[in-house]
Amino acid sequence: MPTSFEQYVHDNARDLLRYATALSCDPHTAQDIVQSVLMRAAQRWPGIEQLAAPGAYVHRMVTNEFLSWRRRAVRTVSLPHGVLEAVTPPYPDETDVVDQRQLVFQGIALLPRKQRAAIVLRYYANRTFAEIAGELGCSEATARSHISRGLAALRDRIPALERAKEAL
């Protein structure tokens, strides 16, 4: 059953924002990414809603937007202030409650974009290696390599982040 774009945003904006925040490690950048994706999705919604999995398509748009975010010039078009908050009111960030999770996010923020995306897709979005490869546009072996290298970097960096935090 086709849904209106407004209903899709109402039902999925929070999940898209959480996913984009996990990718970008910055809630403000995440809002920009989701805003940009939703603006493009709104223009193409009649075609998107006809797809077998419109939610997966929009999710992929968020991933692609994150991967290309720094390569593009700053956008001049934006939604009026407070539009996303009206659809999905701000909610407390639960990651600050758990120090270990915060350290992991700090470590993830230091990873290269593709490694970061692969780690988030695998352990946050619970995707298979085949799904990760499809979303990143690479082979399964490359997706596994991104995850392996990202995890190795996290194992090296998290103890250093813990020591730095304790020194404060």
TrEMBL record:
CDD domains: Sigma70_r4. GO terms for molecular function: DNA binding; sigma factor activity. GO terms for biological process: DNA-templated transcription initiation. SUPFAM superfamilies: Sigma2 domain of RNA polymerase sigma factors, Sigma3 and sigma4 domains of RNA polymerase sigma factors. Pfam families: Sigma70_r2 (PF04542), Sigma70_r4_2 (PF08281). Residues 108-154 form the RNA polymerase sigma factor 70 region 4 type domain. It comes from the Bacteria. Belongs to the sigma-70 factor family. ECF subfamily. This is RNA polymerase sigma24 factor. It comes from Actinokineospora globicatena.
